[in-house]
Amino acid sequence: MATGEYAVPNENVNRVEIMQTKRTGVYSREQLTRLLHPESIAVIGASTRTGSFGERVLFNMQHYAGRAYPVNARYQTIGDHTCYPNVRDLPEVPDCAVITAAREAVEEIVLDCASAGVGGAIIFASGYAETAKEDRIAQQERLVAIARETGLRIIGPNCIGVVNAMLDSRVTFMDITPIPKPQRHAVGIISQSGALGMALAQGVVRGHSVSHVLTSGNSCDVDMADFVNYLATDPACDSIACVFEGMATPERLLLAAENAWAANKPLVIFKMATGEQGAQAAMSHTGSLAGSHESYRAMFKSAGAVVVDDFESLLETAAFFAKAPPPKARGAAIVAASGGAAIMATDRAEQHGVPMPQPAPDVRAILESRIPEFGSSRNPCDVTAQILSDPESLGVCAGALLSDPQYGVLVSPLTYGYAPAAKRSLVYNELAKQHGKMACVVWQTEWQDGPGVVEANECDRVALFRSMSACFSALSAWQWRADKLASGPQHVITTPPETIAQASALIAAASGKTLTEREAKAVLALYGVPVVGESLAQTADDAVNAAAALGYPVVLKVESPDLPHKTEAGVIRLNLRSADEVRAGYDAVMANAGKVQPPPHINGVLVQPMVPQGIEMVVGARNDPLFGPLIVVGLGGILVEVLKDTAMAPAPVTPFQAEALLRQLKGVKLLEGFRGMPAVDIARLARIISDVSRFAADHRDTVAELDINPLICAGDRITAVDALIVTA
């Protein structure tokens, strides 16, 4: 990739030969300041050859606010600059060295930089670990070893470079769009993909303010987590936009995200590579639902990061969070000059759970005084095309809506790009500042750079979105983030040691890798999970006697560690109301079990009282190899994997956090009472979910997956009627 002209030194240099080790922490701001906010930069491999990386970097650095030093033994001067043969010959030790040389020369140069005391190095050259060749992987590992041993911080290899707009430091070989010094509400951009990071930065031509563009390449040393941690306390940016693919130690990114949360620096993440192959081999429903992408989303949310689904909405969402004050109210007011646009906004508000209360009577009176009868003085407010003859009416209506304490934000779709529209954002901006609120303009014209785009993006209290869905998704996340801040730190109850020991003993004594339903429920009962009563029968007569003792109607289930999904195997019979039905049911389930190949080991037939009808929930956990235990809740029963109405979080969770998970479900209305069904005691259900999550966290080393499905809920009657635990 790199085509520099650096002359490799002939002297012998001792090589550091230690292998790469995983880091558990993130680099501090102080450890990265010389690299990312350098007062001096050495361009190693500087050149006059047109198109070479060394020439391109020097061109991009011509406005750099610090001191730049060309380094190349082949030149005495380059332009007006003295060119030095080696980094050790410079008049000062540079804070940062950008290495434009080819891969074969890089290691020697890095050792030179380390021995000279350079603060950090940026390596463009490619052909390292990304090739999957053993010798190239070894070359990258040697760079890692040098960084660990010497303290020289390294970005790359296979990196496009970094930009610090405060210093006009454009350390890249790209033909980069100039990024002006950031103004208020700047966004810091971080990207594993250099091209996508630089592409986002071109938002400056649309009026966005950008403080940094930090790309990581192969991340042999400094990576995404370190960049996030650095920007978390950087006053130059007010939010962080992150393009993320994946990393071997994602817990470090979560640590950085938590630090950004602690610093109240909004972090917005777009996650690429959303495949779910990791869930395909799972034994439990939970395992199949908790795929890699959903696991990432759950972990990011737990750390307070906002996750967007589309690359196109990343920068505008981050720009919104850079500008937006804490919401004063949950409601959104919509004002439009197009009835169709107003309807579209209402649809998206409902989709994303953003409430749209109707205006207060005094506000309604103002709207009615300025809106013709063929418009709408409700919410959404349609001021109609009459604003062409009464331009001030839009501002009057917008101001009235923003004065209503029910509304925290004003949303205004802009459907047609023309000169008068450019003034609207300025009006909204002043009104939003006056009321301490936020305004959003949704750009619905195909004239993407039409009049008003730059003006809107440059406003302090106006955010511009290119889609209605992105706008209301951001508003929903805005309120979610405010709720999370308001909830304060959450503390999970500590399990008594004797309970942990008892559960561990039962798991160890289980009959196989997959605990039977009876064994699993016995373990979970120790954690307070309410389980159905039962008896294990070895004969039809035993089953009849057990049914009489438990009380009709009853359920029969074959117990076998080899039949984790009983419905599919046909080894369940429900609602048996007599001794004859129990005998017939016993014979039927045993016959079906005998048809399974290979033949399962059968312990007997469980007899349980038939639990009355209720809402069926699934509560489970999965020990993710990257993230540890994750709790999953959702609508359960036999359709759990079809409906996939689930929510996930890292375990353990508090009852407060568990209730928040329940309220994320599309089917939450079922829990609140539906068609004569009693409302579920959500607080009690949340406590049970919290208890299950404690179990998953306490036994992360021995339990790979667990399911409670279904957990039947009706009022305050909540009962686990089936459970599955798979050991690690």
**What is the percentage of strand-forming residues?**
15-25%
Overall shape: flat
Q: Strand count, sense and closure of the main sheet?
A: 7 strands, mixed
How many separate domains? 5
Q: Roughly what percent helix? A: 25-40%
Poorly predicted tracts of residues: 1-21, 277-291
Radius of gyration: 31 Å
The strand count comes to 30
Commentary on this structure:
The protein is flat. The two termini are 44 Å apart. It has 5 domains: 1-160, Rossmann fold (3-Layer(aba) Sandwich), CATH 3.40.50.720; 177-323, Rossmann fold; 325-487, Rossmann fold; 533-610, 2-Layer Sandwich (Dna Ligase, domain 1), CATH 3.30.1490; 615-727, 2-Layer Sandwich (D-amino Acid Aminotransferase, Chain A, domain 1), CATH 3.30.470. The strands form 6 sheets. A 7-stranded mixed β-sheet has the order 9-8-11-10-12-13-14, with helices on both faces. Strands 20, 25, 26, 27, 28, 29 and 30 form a 7-stranded antiparallel β-sheet that branches. The protein has 728 residues and is α/β, with parallel strands linked by helices. It has 25 helices and 30 strands. Helix 1 packs across helix 6, helix 11 runs parallel beside helix 16 and helix 17 runs antiparallel to helix 18 (517-525).
Summarize the entry for a quick read.
The radius of gyration is 31 Å and the shape is flat. It is built from 25 helices and 30 strands.
Q: Which key phrases capture this entry?
A:
728 residues; alpha/beta; Rossmann fold; 5 domains; seven-stranded mixed beta sheet; 25 helices; flat
